[in-house]
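Suppose you are handed a protein chain with no further information: no name, no annotation, nothing but its sequence. What can you learn? This example shows the usual starting point.
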Amino acid sequence: MEKAKEFNSMDKLKVFMKKNTMLIALVIVTLFFQFETGGTLLAPRNMTNLISQNGYVVILAVGMLMCILTGGNIDLSVGSIVALVGALAGTLIVTKGMNVYLAIAICLAVGILIGIWQGFWIAYVRIPAFIVTLSGMLLWRGVALMILGGLTISPFPEEYLNLFNSYIPDPFGGQINIMCMIVAIAVCAILVCTELVSRKNRIKKGYSTGSAAQLLTRLVVICALILFAGYKLANHKGIPTILVLLAAVVLIYSYYTSRTVNGRYLYAVGGNEKAAKLSGIDTNKVLFKSYVNMAFLSAVAALMCVARFNSSAPTAGMSYELDAIGACFIGGASAYGGTGTVGGAVIGAIFMGVLNNGMSIMGIDANMQKAVKGLVLLAAVAFDVISKKRKESK
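A reasonable first move is to predict its three-dimensional structure. Written in structure tokens, the prediction is:
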């Protein structure tokens, strides 16, 4: 009897470790760099830098996840779309003096049009996504260079920069940003309530759930991380506006993928497209929408990037597609499609951000940094492939 209980406990521990592998890895890597950098990595000012430096990765990773879910498809053109939309924003706002909000609307519309163009060839003509987006990578980069004429446009007006580079004001005043701590506590409370209600509903419907101890451990770890991050931000300038935008994108797409019918179609198409089509799902439409959405989020990322750098440059967006793809796979998305979560993609993006920032602070050579990221990405995909083979062999 005691042996049976011991085995049962070990199985539960294995399941918990498997479900939270990347979260545990993120905590370990963060603690390692925090120790190696003498506390610089998680210093209040550097926490804000981490958010601003990696905000675009989170946005692009969320969009890339939608493409990967449809069957392991990727979008290689996102970096070039960032460059094109950034060039357009610089031309309209700085050179032409257009109203900031009208220029933003035009930039987002251009992103959607690019997505419609690429989505049409991928979903309805059935040209492989790799070929279409590779074409887009060259095409949109070329258009961006033509718009800029090989020059950099700067600076942007303060009205535009404040939309992305400012901080949420604290009405309480004081040395520590009280508003930041209130928001962090509120986020934890909402998270706990949501998880408990979700667990209760799953039990009521007869679905399998993990043990209460596993849920409690997970919630404690996540809430501790949120409160720690909130405290660090409160000791600098508070909540960056870019963090509010990131939170909105993550929450909207988390709800979309997990709670809506159209969101679940992504998983169905990625799991087995033929079966999904026979079930009545318009697979072409699902594929089309995922690429339109990817281009739209690329335009959002472009607007963030030009505000951060305060310029539109011909070299903007270089290798951004690789960062987004890497974040998704490191965060648990399957290379075959049908598996992955928005939360996992965000953890993958944060993991890469911590890796980049930590190695930079330590003064590690840029070439070595690329080698390390390459090995991490290979390890993440290899883990996915090996796990799938083990399941199939059982």
